[in-house]
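TODO from last week: model Efflux pump antibiotic resistance protein.
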Amino acid sequence: MRDDGELNNGHAGKGLQVIHVALFRMATQSFAEAYRTLGYKTHHGVEDILGNPWVEIEQAAEATWPTVPNARPRPRFTRSDWDNLWGDKYDIVTDLACPFTDQLIQAYPDAKIVVVQRDFDSWWNSYQVGVLDKLFSPGQQIFVFLIRNVLGSRAADAMLKVNYGLFKATSVAEIREHAREVYDEYYRKIRETIPAEKRLEYTMGDGWEPLCAFLGKDVPDIPFPRLNDSKARSESQRQGEVTVLLKSARKFALLGVGAGIIATSFWYYAQA
């Protein structure tokens, strides 16, 4: 995985410098590359699926939405908690922070606010394929099982709680039912809370100029990144799935589990 800090001189616990307001599947890969080009230490979670701080993200979800399925009681996150999760290490978090935007704005009142909004219909189609299907489709349950029970990662549990909480749901059917309402409310709350002069409303295709002017950065002499987020995410997820299978196979082998189980896992993967 690419080192998020390799293009800058470090972070040193300054807290988040920019709050990127955009839901999952809204050009976050392109913006991660843009922010890095401008010198920000940037976290983009899809690049290292198993390496994310899933325990802390799950705790943040439980603290934010205490009624989500299987939530354990815990207090609301404080600035110290957000620093421990992201603020002590990064300037910007482009995707995994999106469900917690309102809390992060309160925790980091001096951070600049960049708002990116994608048309609902195109976004929702992408979200269902790229996020919901990975969590809820029958063909993906082998990975949920392996991640949770073999590798001991909280990735699937954290993302389930984040999605249930964000969409005020207890099932995938309710997520779909509430999607439009949540989308509208997410952006309405930001615009009601943050004055227009204190936020940048960025539309993909605007290029470097408005972003650099808002952040006080020089305009790079290269085109604004236009990465294929769907393709990049699919490739990253595919690589992550291979990693899950290989790590699970090694663990099965160490535990003396039969080759049939390993072969079955790879068969499921090949059919996906």
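Done. Residues 34 and 225 are 6 Å apart (CA to CA).
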